[in-house]
Write a structure and sequence with these properties.
The chain is of the alpha/beta class. It is built from six helices and twelve strands.
Length: about 280
């Protein structure tokens, strides 16, 4: 967890668990997940990590600690001006997937929902990202059956990397209430993805290319297209980074920033970093 982070779309990060059951970027065929890579280096030898990335480990108390962070409402962020004035924006589970199968719903309620919904945690926005929105939807239903409402300041998101993984969105739409802010992290995008059928039902789309030694190409046309589609649908759009290998019209582009995350280097047409409408102001769908 970190009170400050270089991740462009948030102020802070917190991990109520560490480790993951695996996904399309961490498994037998590919191991390019940055959280998995860090666990390979530090797991079992550095305090705060899981023994291995595959051993999902709970760290109770972290959410309460993050909830105690100062309120940033009304403050400017010179290095992240798109967050100016907003409540502290906290990314939940950047180093893990807390919806992994071994994590009980009781723990998710006590550690995440309880700290978000009450006390100092109510001051912040919490952005919970998972590659398992089916379990997030099950957890949402579990809460509902116990008379517990999904907190408005807990945003629900899922990661999309390929066209096939857009199937996750149908479960994401089952999470929470009509007031819940739902978002996609289309990162790392490794092929052309058509989101047109889903955009009217979403509030926010983050897009980014892959970084690291194994990075697959990111086509600038993907950013141009998605920027335009989001604008047409009134969906907030945020281009995080272009990645380590960026192409345009079949030719590789060069950037000083190794991840192409410095938006001052981008073509102006994709220099877009927007945050969604306020909590409770669902556009519908």
């Amino acid at each position: 967890m970190a009170v400050k982070t270089k991740i462009q779309w948030c102020d802070s990060t917190v991990n109520p668990t560490m480790g993951c059951d695996g996904c399309e970027i961490w498994g037998s065929l590919r191991r390019s997940c940055y959280a998995g890579t860090l666990h390979t280096r530090f797991g079992g030898v550095t305090q705060g990590y899981a023994p291995t990335f595959e051993e999902v480990t709970k760290f109770p108390g972290r959410m309460a600690q993050a909830a105690s962070y100062s309120d940033l409402t009304g403050q400017s962020r010179p290095d992240k001006p798109w967050l100016d004035g907003l409540p502290r924006t906290v990314f939940v589970s950047d180093m893990s997937d807390s919806l992994s199968l071994s994590v009980a719903f009781e723990y998710l309620h006590d550690e995440i929902v309880a700290n978000v919904a009450d006390g100092p945690g109510r001051r912040h926005r919490w952005l919970w990202l998972t590659k398992r929105p089916d379990r997030m939807a099950q957890f949402s239903s579990w809460l509902r059956h116990r008379g517990i409402e999904w907190p408005d300041n807990l945003w629900a998101g899922t990661s999309i990397t390929t066209q096939a993984t857009t199937s996750r969105i149908k479960n994401l739409l089952k999470v929470g209430t009509p007031r819940t802010t739902r978002f996609l992290s289309v990162e790392p995008q490794v092929e052309s993805i058509d989101l047109r059928r889903w955009l009217p039902k979403l509030d926010w789309v983050i897009q980014g290319g892959e970084s690291g030694r194994q990075a697959r190409p990111f086509d600038m046309a993907w950013a141009v297209d998605l920027t335009g589609l989001c604008r047409a649908e009134g969906v907030s759009y945020f281009l995080k980074q272009l990645g380590s290998v960026v192409v345009r019209d079949g030719r590789r582009m060069s950037f000083e920033d190794g991840h192409a995350g410095d938006w001052s280097e981008w073509p102006e047409e994709v220099r877009v970093r927007e945050m969604p409408v306020p909590d409770g102001a669902r556009r519908g769908g």
